[in-house]
Description:
By secondary structure, the protein is α/β, with parallel strands linked by helices. The protein contains nine helices and 13 strands. α6 runs antiparallel to α7.
Amino acid sequence: MKHLILTGLMMAGGAFAQSQSVLGEYTTKISDHVWAIMGFPNIAIVVGSKATLVVDTGMGPKNGATIARVAAKLAPGNQKLFLTTTHFHPEHAAGEPGFPASTILIRNRVQQQEMEKHGQEMIDSFSSRPQNKELLAGVVLRAPDVLFDQEATVDLGGVTARLIWFGGAHTRGDELTFVEPDSTLISGDVVQNKTMPNIYGDGGTPSSWLAVLDKIAGTNAAHVLPDHSAPGDGSMVAAERSLISEMRTRALAFRRQGVSVEDAGKRVSEELKKEHPDWPNTNAAAFVKSIYSDPVE
Ligand SMILES: [Zn+2]
């Protein structure tokens, strides 16, 4: 009984939802025009006086429908709903069929190409877990209404969302959303909070990720909402940059000394654990592998 009460309280606070693929309707205010459903992943809802933009869909149509309902509740007068995705992975993009048919779907071209190449394969791989299988059953992904190369601007009425592709990082098609006048960055997996970076498959490289972070620094974000960790202020951008560049310096030194990639991964992980005892995980093995195979030194 005690356990049940505790679980209920945690869910009300949104904390329990972090590890859950089924999103609730509870929202957290990030900045004047940006709300978030905190969960797996965090979903951003950007509200202007005329239109609303949702960033990411949740895992499968049931979550997409929940998000669309929350967006309508936050701004009942807004007739137009825009939807974009931080990257093509199923918890970020495969909930699209749950949104109303009139939703205007926008994403960058590289992300769309990546989705056409690897989207179904990712849905199949996520579906090996029973809960995801149910959530992703029968998902058919549609083509976007708008594709852009580098940047698209969406006018929501008194609020502008800049959708930006700066290059590959966690994936090739990572998209960033910058909201004005809030100076809020919706950062996807590219800028996280106390979280290890991870390059998926044939996504970006550690050096391309750093180049993306240098461009992000130019936006001078005041608030950052990542997709798999807690929101924070603009200092998260510099923190991500120093994390990746320090890992890179250490791993490249090990590589020059002829240390095996496995040993380098272990040593970098141990160093990070000492420096960041409060982080949930400092396993650097996968990222050190990406550094070892990065053609740019
Ligand atoms: Zn991902």
